[in-house]
Amino acid sequence: MPRLLFVIATTLGCVMFFTDKAHASTNGVSHFDRTIIKEPTYQSTPKYSLITLGNSGDVKVWIVEDGKRLFVDKNANGDLTDDGPPIEPSNVRDLGANRWDFEYVLDAITPTNGSRHTRFVLRRWNYGDKEDSYGLSLSVDGRMPMYAGWFGTFWSTNRETAPVMHFGGPFTPKLLRRTDFTIGETHRRLSLCFLNPGSGAGAESLLSIDALPRFVVPELNIEWPTAGGGAPLRTSYELTQRCCYWEFYTTEFEVPKGVVAGKAKISVTLPAGVIPIELTTTEMVAPVVAPPQVSDSVR
Question: In percent, how much of the chain has pLDDT > 70?
Answer without folding.
Answer: 86
